[in-house]
Write a structure and sequence with these properties.
Layout lengths: L16 H17 L26 E6 L5 E3 L2 E3 L4 H11 L4 E6 L5 H14 L3 E4 L3
Parallel strand pairs: 1-4, 4-5
Antiparallel strand pairs: 1-2, 2-3
């Protein structure tokens, strides 16, 4: 006796549930891995090419930043808290001196930004960033 087995083509549906799960997991991963922090910037005026040098001579102070947190203004070593008082003495003789900030290569960026903020708070408007 022979049994007849029906061979009907069964249509299998592809489930989209695993695909949707993977898409949501990827979306969650990228949302958590993203950084939504706002970055602030400091406007620096870079020197351009000029035909003639400026006619007025200004006093330019050199401020060296060391990696240990000490500062050196015109050859005198001082701490960050002593900088405003020392700058006030220079501002009395010249109301708008230029300051060239020369940081060591190991100085933290936050220290550099703090010095720039301190210089601007004391009234220095001509700031130049140099390198040693």
């Amino acid at each position: 006796m022979r049994l007849e087995v029906s061979r009907r083509a069964s249509k299998r549906a592809i489930s989209l549930t695993p695909l949707i799960d993977i898409v949501f997991i990827l979306l969650l991963f990228f949302m958590l891995a993203s950084n939504f922090q706002q970055w602030r910037s400091i406007k620096l005026n870079t020197p351009g090419v000029s035909a003639a040098p400026p006619s007025t001579e200004r006093r330019v102070l050199q401020l060296l930043l060391h990696a240990d947190g000490s500062l050196e203004l015109e050859g005198q070593t001082l701490l960050m808290g002593q900088l405003p008082a020392r700058l006030e003495a220079y501002l009395d003789s010249d109301p708008q001196p230029g300051v060239i900030v020369l940081p060591d290569k190991d100085v933290a960026l936050q220290t550099l930004v703090s010095v720039f903020d301190l210089l601007q708070a004391t009234g220095v408007r001509q700031l130049t960033l140099g390198e040693l």
